[in-house]
Amino acid sequence: MSFESLPVLEQLMLAMAAMALFTSFVLLEQERLVAAIHAFAWQGALVSAVTTLVAASSGLRHLYFSALLTFALKALLIPWMLHRLSRRLELDRYAEPLRRPALVTMAAVALVIFSYWLALPIMHENLIFTRNIVAVSLAVVLIGLLMMVVRQQAVAQVLGFMSMENGLFLAAVSATGGMPLLIELGVAFDVLVAMVLFGIFFFHIRESIDSLDVDRLNRLTETEEDTR
Amino acid sequence: MTALLLAVFTPLAGAGVLALTRSLGLAGWINVIVSAATFAASIALARDVAAAGEVAGMTFRVDAFNVYLLALTAFVGMTTSIFSRPYMRHVCQTGRTNARGMRLYHSMYQTFMFTMLLALSTDNLGVLWVAVEGATLATVLLVSLYRTPEAVEAAWKYFILCGVGIALALFGTVLTYFAAQSVLADPAEGLTWSALYTAAPKLEPSIMSLAFVFLLVGYGTKIGLVPMHQWLPDAHSEGPTPMSAVLSGLLLNVALYAVVRLKMLVDGSLAASASPHMAGRLLMGFGLLSFLVAGLFLHRQRDIKRMFSYSSIEHMGLMTFAFGLGGPLATFGALLHMLVHSLTKSAIFVTVGHAAHIAGTQSINNIRGLIRTQPAVGWSLLIAVAAIAGFPPFGIFTSEFLLLTATMKLQPWFTVALLLGLAVAFAGLFRHLHPMVYGPAPEGQKPVPANMIPVAVHLGLVLWLGLSIPGFLARWLDRATELITGGHLL
Amino acid sequence: MNLTALTLALLQLSLYVALAPLLAGWVRKVKARLQNRRGASVLQPYRDIYKLLVKETLVAHTASPLFRAAPYVVFSATWLATSAVPLVSTGLPAAMIADVIVVAGLLALARFFLTLAGMDVGTAFGGMGASREMFISALAEPAMLMAVFTLAMTAHSTNMASVVEYQLAEGTILRPSFLFALSGLILVAIAETGRIPVDNPATHLELTMIHEAMILEYSGRHLALMEWAAQLKLMLYGALIANVFLPWGIAQGSGAGELASGLAAAVVKLGLLGAALAASETALAKMRLFRIPDFLNLALLLALLGLLSYVILEVGA
Fold first, then answer.
1. Nearest residue to B259 (alpha-carbon basis) of B289, B195, B214, B291
2. DSSP E strands: which ranges in A61-157?
3. CA angle A39, A41, A44 (to 5 degrees)
4. Average pLDDT, stretch C108-119?
5. Do the Cβ atoms of A183 and B124 come within 8 Å?
6. What is the DSSP letter of C316?
7. Please, what's the largest Cα pairwise distance for chain C?
8. In this complex, which chains have at least 3 CB pairs below 8 Å with chain A?
9. Mutate to test the interface with A, among C172, C174, C292 (most CBs of A within 10 A)
10. I want to staple B489 with a disulfide (CB 3.0 to 4.6 A). Which of B332, C13, C180, C289 is the partner?
11. From residue B292, how far is each of B52, B285, B331 by CA, in Å?
12. Is a pLDDT exceeding 70 seen at residue B172?
């Protein structure tokens, strides 16, 4: 199969997966918190769009429900919760400059190439046409991980974590046509609970160290002299 | 089947009840009763499995491998709940937490039990993942129960590191499901472990090895393998003592169980490929690294609970190494080790909780003269540490001996590393323990009301298992060994 | 090459030269209308060029021969580069040398002489404009090459005419690599032609000038050639985007009817692109200089993602 011979629907699907990867880069580089939350919402919307298209072109009906669930959770509910949290934490206009943007971008591109290399054995399997998206979804997962590493603000780290979950969902949809619905519901429930707990945590952290800069959580180290 | 359902879902019901119970005293007793009921159900389940060989149905599957883990989890849950009742009342009275925190604690304790039992008894890899993630989520708020800056930091690290690890494990699960799509007659069965196990030789090796790497890194984070262990010492030392006991004793076992189940699949898939021992080698590598690094870090610790958390990492590394080594002897030893380590470690944390109460601090430098002040606590700590360090005739000595024998047979040079690590850990533990238990007691140190029966029971069991393993247990472990490696020991 | 072929080659070249001021005037007119002004006529740039051609040419006494030569070099290099980008037809004889690397090289030559000229007279503003121009082009060049190489990989050739013909033969295809390469190329085009948000072509404040600063010392016919070259560059990029990425309407032979329809299609597409440019110039504000690397890094990233999408998603899809 070559790209040109795929029907338009499937080309559109690949295009949207590529755009989801682009939003992952945007999330990584974005300095303003509110804009990053919007980028995350777009990523969720793109992932659910890919799911809908897979459902339409392969006839797997339960994927429509998954797509709706993802859209409701990742594009609407969780960004809304993060928005509300950032308002209550007074982070509306928060902008944290990325410390070494060029290096971080290069690392992200290297991760894309690395995930392509890792996913080669899958891509050679002549199973379903969306297997190429597995490499893109692994890249989204790894870039989410990179975001958690380079950002020091707690809310930004949570965005990285959530974008990892987006990538995982995309991998499940593209490699296997979606996992069984029960499992998807379980995973979605876990993600939601995790989000709620994160919300509670932000307040705990701010209470204890008066800021959300996670680098300041440094009392527990191996070289500390215990003074308790 | 009823016993299985009761064993798994009683804690969930208990969690619901406890969420609504406002009285602290009543909640403590309900906790104990629910845990006891769970334990009774697990004993009934064990009898069912002994009679029928395995109990399966409705995406559950209890065979020789996980039945004893289920019983162990329920047992330690029960004894820890007995310990936690007066302990947490004391904690609440000293003002470290309030009534709402206690309600959260009790209901999350039972939720945590539920997720662990679900993870141990399910046949579906997806449900396994959801349950392990659920266990993490249930305990996160408990680690930060005391709301000190250190506790919040420990809980945040725990949440983030384990969350990331679990996410990678999900990717591995997805890849396994993907590999199963082309091989199974009914692709929707792609997450059922038993179906995957029968079809394992047909699974594509390249995909399965990639999946295993992700699964090992993911679930390995929850086991506490170096270098993904950073959350463990913090989380186990900052949470309330019953939490440390259960996390160290039980959750690490559940994660290791998950890795071993998946290793069985990968071994079947890679058996005919170019590198059939890849999974075992990876496990050996991570296990040995964790074992050695943790033993070295033990020496530097200033906080008693952190020290014992590193001991947990060390023992989990040893077990991982043993499972990676493979072969009936090492696997039998590892299974036995899972059992005795769990019992000993929870006993240690319970005793440490009392010791910290007596001394008013968790800092090793400030705990002194335990035997003088309260001989029950002091002697228990001494005996328990002797047990965990591998003194005969305790059970840990038996399992470590089996492991060393196996290593000498299969990979002789690693025996040196193992012995060295054991010696280093031994030295570290006793070096810190000695001033704590012996010597004069500081001014004004008074004994505390302590229920040492759970500790005595645990240590007694460990001693019994070290001296002579009962027949039914040995047969179970043997059957589990056969399931995992395909060879008998006995 | 026979006489008809030569005529056709000269026809394309003269079309570029003739229509470039019209495009510039059109953009200015649309911008004026969007800003609620009536604006000058679309033919005003022609009148400006004529005016400059007949005016006296003053040269500073500190200028070297390079100063006098630069406008001619810049104009010829840009004009020659336009011969490599298909405007009305892909079947023109110049198609054989229509290589994207040739285009990039000729534009680089033009830029080189432009910056030298800016520094030649020794004024502060010239040097400042030259250094800013080099700064921007150093970042924009890799992005442009990467975007065009993405196209080239798809068509297996760096020849623009082949790329356009390949595109037409394939029909409507939604390639992610093209989407990214197009976005990247648009950003690069804005930077290279000195438009808002990178540089304001209508500014009269020296400290905000980039292109204008380099030609500040020029007058008379020299200035006419420099301005015309800038307009040619704008048309070149416009034709690149319009005809290579959106090739519908371009002629593929050299018959008179085909050429006429190709010209009409080109005019329509360039008109629409010009209007879009005017709209974006009205909506956006000029960025501060130190933010331009972010802008161009985005362009490079988009181009790179296009390349990666091609390799990951489209090969063996």
1. B214
2. none
3. 110
4. 93
5. yes
6. T
7. 64
8. B, C
9. C174
10. B332
11. 42, 11, 20
12. yes
Dihedral, CA of residue C183, residue C184, residue C186 and residue C190, to nearest 10? 140
The CB density around residue A201, as the number of other CB atoms within 10 Å, is: 20
Question: What percent of chain B lies above the pLDDT cut of 90?
Answer: 45
The minimal CB distance from A197 to the residues B126, B141, B191 is found for: B141
Query: Is the sign of the CA dihedral A40, A128, A113, A14 positive or negative?
Result: negative
Contacts of A116 in chain C (CB under 8 A): 308, 311-312
ipTM here: 0.90
Give the confidence band of A222 by pLDDT, cuts at 50, 70, 90. Answer: low
CA dihedral sign of residues C97, C102, C103, C107: negative
Most B CBs within 10 Å, among A204, A211, A215, to test the B interface: A204
The 8-class DSSP code of residue B60 comes to E
Interface-testing mutation among C172, C312, C314, with chain A (most A C-beta atoms within 10 A): C312
Question: Tell me, what DSSP letter sits at residue A159?
Answer: H
E strands along B329-378, which residues? none
- Domain ranges for chain C, please list them: 3-314
Contact B320, B223 (CB under 8 A): yes
The overall average pLDDT reported for chain B is 89
Burial of C310: CB neighbours in 10 Å, binned 0-12, 13-18, 19+: buried
Which residues on adjacent β-strands are paired with residue C268? none
pLDDT at A228: 42
Q: Under an 8 A CB cutoff, do A133 and C294 touch? A: no
**Residue C292 with chain A: CB contacts under 8 Å:** none
Euclidean distance between the first and the last CA atom of chain A, given in angstroms as a whole number: 67
Q: Compare CB distances from B181 to A127, A134, A187 and report the shortest one's residue.
A: A127
Task: Let me know if B289 is exposed, middle or buried by CB neighbors in 10 A (0-12, 13-18, 19+).
Answer: middle
**pLDDT for res C294:** 87
What residues of A are in contact with residue B363 (Cβ under 8 Å)? 226, 228
**Domain boundary assignment for chain B:** 1-123
- Nearest residue of chain C to residue A6 (CA atoms): C317
Cβ contacts of A170 on chain B, cutoff 8 Å:
none
With b for 16 or more beta-carbon neighbours within 10 A and e for fewer, the C284-305 pattern comes to eeeeeeeebbebbbbbbbbbbb
Shortest CB distance from A105 goes to which of C173, C301, C309? C301
Alpha helix positions (H), B360-470: 370-373, 375-389, 395-410, 412-437, 453-467
- Phi then psi for residue C210, to 5 deg, are -120, -65
Provide the percentage of residues in chain C whose pLDDT is more than 90: 46
Q: Which B residues 119-158 touch A at CB under 8 Å?
A: 124, 126-127, 129-130, 133-134, 137, 140-141, 144, 147-150, 152-157
Interface chains of chain C (3 or more CB pairs under 8 Å) = A
Residue B52's contacts (CB-CB under 8 Å, 6 or more residues apart) are none
Residue in B126, B174, B188 nearest the CB of A171? B174
Q: How many CB atoms lie within 10 A of CB C115?
A: 21
Across-strand partners of C89?
C251
- In this structure, the number of other CB atoms found within 10 A of the CB of residue B473 comes to 15
Distance between the two ends of chain B, CA-based, in angstroms? Answer: 29
Q: Do B156 and A125 make contact, defined as CB atoms within 8 angstroms?
A: no
Q: Are A140 and A24 in contact (CB under 8 A)?
A: yes
Give the separation between CA A56 and CA A58, rounded to whole angstroms.
Answer: 6
Contacts of A175 in chain B (CB under 8 A): 174-175, 177-178
What are the chain A neighbours of B155 within 8 Å (beta carbons)? 201, 204
